[in-house]
Fold each of these.
Amino acid sequence: MYGVFLSALVAAVLVADWDRIQRSFFQVDVMVEMLPQVLSIAARNTLIYTVGSFVIGLILALILALMKLSTIKPYRWFAITYIEFFRGLPALITIILFGFALPIAFDGFRLPGGTLVTGSVALGVVAAAYMAETIRAGVIAVPRGQTEAARSLGMSSSRALYSIVLPQAFRIIIPPLTNEFVLLIKDTSLLFVLGTTPMTKELTKFARDFMQTTQNATPLTVAAVVYLLITLPLTGLVRRLEKETAKAR
Amino acid sequence: MTTAVIEIRDLHKRFGDLEVLKGIDFEVDEGEVVCVIGPSGSGKSTLLRCVNRLEESESGTILIEGEDITDPDADVDKLRTKIGMVFQQFNLFPHLDVLGNLTIAQTKVLKRSAEDAEEVARRVLERVGLTDKIDEYPIRLSGGQQQRVAIARALAVNPDMMLFDEPTSALDPELIGEVLDVMRALANDGMTMLVVTHEISFAREVADRVVFMDEGVVVEAGPPGEILVDPKTERARRFLRMVEQR
């Protein structure tokens, strides 16, 4: 088996037109030309979309998780419906919903702050569905005795939740939440459908447009490298955090 | 006449089809130490947890200094600050250091200032002999030390009475003594204590009264000299024989 794999690999390397690959994907003058804007606009916008949607998603997710854990049935029903709905749909549908469907349906409906906000809200709404389940799992993982000890000291149930249970729950779920952050970085590439203006383009859209003007594939390489520069350290961090959590038990 | 600080009347509790408490009556007077003993599954821990309403009872009343904690309108959070509770599994807050464990209820519930809370924390920590551990996190402490911090945490809100739910059952044998010493000192200081325990020798030495429970009822109650030496019922005799054989 190894032999087959190895010879296929060698054959591919020999057959490949390296000169052509270099010209299309690693054109230095294209890199130099696009670099200032990649950093000042594209990467910046990708981070704005990611952080914006993460914060919005986290706040919504916390509310949803508490609703799903609530003893009040309508709260639970709402949370379950929300989570199943937005987890079941392609993220692209939700993005189009916020970017085009709602403005068409309710003429003039527009979130303040333009595309940067619309994109962040759309992605945040989707991310909340996933993060709500993560937060809920974290809350459940905190032993019951913690709540009992807090209540026995006279804390109300909400005080016990905020001072005792949630701090411990968030410690447990830092690795999966970081993972969610990495997924969001990549999902920001879906925001190209919003037809973003020159100042609100994120990495993927920026690279695609740049490819069109230069008729060269190098911008895609640059975008990929920038993504990896952000995501690889983070996934490494997740691995380390997971190892530490495992050790702490 | 001394007044009862805990007064339990005709208390019933069931888990599904299983009736765990079948009409419990007894009271604990101010400054009194009452030890509840009995086989596992007899309902002792459930009874204790009903007293500060961590467990809801079906019927009956529990008066805490005259106020019925089972009343739906009772201010349970406020009543609980009068009742310190110590758990079998310590249940210290692992994300807070010892000082944080001792001050959080003081500042968040009693609204004491941070300085006042810290002063109280140092004082109660001295009572359990652990002042040097004030900056440690619970995970760095031995089981015995954790339980002593848990006792200090309960004391920090100045309760009028303390509940102990098998406080030494989760401890290695060599660590039991230090926790019992702290409890003994508390009893000598006049703290009202209701203790569910398997430590018969502790009950014999410290308790003013011993309550023997079995199958959800109080079978016998009286001074340790009677209950633990010459029990009237066959059930109590059998239980004591089994415990002493260990």
Amino acid sequence: MSPTAVVADPGRAGVGAPSIDGAPSIDGAPSIDGAPSIDGAPSIDGVAPAVHPGARVLLIGIGNELRHDDAAGPRVVRAVQGLVRWDTLVVHGLTPEIADDLAAVALVIFVDANADPLLPRPRWTPQAPPAVGPAAATLLGHALTVPVLLALTSWLHGRVPAAVTLELPGHAFCIGECLTPRAAQGVATAIEALLRLHASWAAATP
Amino acid sequence: MSRTVLIDPVTRIEGHAKITLRLDDAGNVQDTRFHVVEFRGFEAFCRGRSVFEMPALTARTCGICPVSHVLTGAKAGDAILGVEPPPAARRLRRMMNLGQILQSHALSFFHLSSPDLLLGFDADPVKRNVFGLIEAEPEIARRGIRMRRFGQEVIEALGGRKIHPAWAVAGGVRGGIDPEARERLRAEWETILFDAKWAWARYGEVVDAHPAEVASFGVFPSLFMGLVSEDGDWEHHDGLLRFIDAGGGRFGEDFPVERYDAFIGEVSDRDTYLKSPYHLGAQGDVPVGPEAPGTYRVGPLARVNLAERMGTPLADAALAEFRGEFGRVPQGSFHYHGARLIEILAAAEQIGELLADPDLDRGPLRAEAGINRLRGVGVSEAPRGTLIHDYRVDENGLMTGLRMIIATGHNNLAMNRTVGQIAKAFVKGADVAEGVLNRIEAGIRAYDPCLSCSTHAVGQMPLVLRIEGADGELLRELSR
């Protein structure tokens, strides 16, 4: 699960979305942004990643599946892994050797619960390695954060994929296997979004 | 007026934890506490589940040591079925545990502790991390990742997955080793052994560079506990439980794992959810506290101290060197790092032997049986220490009770005492330097605790230091 973060700034939409260098974008790919949800609010905040034809994509679901909403990321990835031609990985936390997996792809999509009580719906958040500095100094643990893993990938392999986190609302993280209603809605929305993204990619990828 | 220094949470340690230091009027450390602040509740969650489900279920409590829970849960299931797994299943289970020890120790030494050990505890915190390490010694991070990946490939070759493999089951295992993966592992093995030797060769340099830390990181007499083979050799999966005292003498006879509760008690404390196990036969009037006579340590240092031999040539040579330098039973918790490196050697060597064994997965892999006993105890050595699963079931094999004592729990009293010792050595007054805070954390990291078995990791947060007056007034707050 992601540390509690600031609420998305709507003004950031369209800024910093990852793209794959040198590859053309898919024309006419369906946009996820602005698609209405049941209550009429946009289903996912932020900007979906550009997924270019032929690009190798890795989906990583992060979380403890016995901690209620922390299972949101793994559930999303498990739901789509038989339906997509992307690489998939479900992990409890991010560890250093995953850098090797990241180095092999053009785009990585992390799917993770976020405990921010103000996160109303799923959100795309662009990711990048942190600048060298204090931010990197305190971000080491048995489980790495996304930026630190990206930095490690860059240091070890000399390249880093475009990266984005699909953050899902989470509210309950004690022991248990079911999702709260809002987390379940976020999971359903995320599955639909990823399948649409994949459909666009697949249509243009031999 | 006394003052309180609060460090919350401990970074680079799984889960939530905080450290409180209480200062007296002269600014000397009066008391210290290591708190774990989230309720586990897993035992209650498991009631009503099938015993056959338990290995996979308990594995999902933790992303750091899931294999340890899988194997220990399967062993508790063996006991409830009343069966011994077939020899091939035991060999395969042992191989998976060795893979787990290798990959976990690699993470602990190469990535979590090496920034302190090789760059220095007082190094600029901006540099004192894996990136600074890569800058200074790029090879060490690569070797660490290579070793960790190899350990995970061992796990995947057996269980089909790197994480949470539902492969070990009551009575044995679900399948043999993937032949192609086995060949790949054999091809990579010599490189890993080379890396293991290279890492051990660095330990003398590490110790020489940090004399003050070696002298203050948990140097106190305590008991040590862990599994040993019937010959008294290093063991990680089968065998008997052994306690030794600080002088290396047996503290009672070795005993079968199901009798653990005749020797180990647990107490709860009001300000931590991590219980404190202690040796019942050594308890005084107050079993919990800095001078608790029932304090024992588990994990790499304990296993190495308990064993007569490691059982493989390179690891035995390293053990002889270790004991020649630091004594038959080193007392300082700094030496967890050295013991971890010896275990890396042993695990690499034993994995090599198993990969070369033509009978590795030949023969039956699972003993079939129904519910024959209503209680079963499984014990194995997780990378960070002895893991105990104690199951009670009804006639249908549904769980009616569960008691788990995790490695980090066993070490709780020792970690508290270590924090106190380091604080007393390095803290004088509320003006605490960053390097001192780092030392306190590093003292705990030496045990490589994994609190995610008992807590929920909510990401990494900055280290916060609070200094309070006796009336709760905030005198100072630091963070990094």
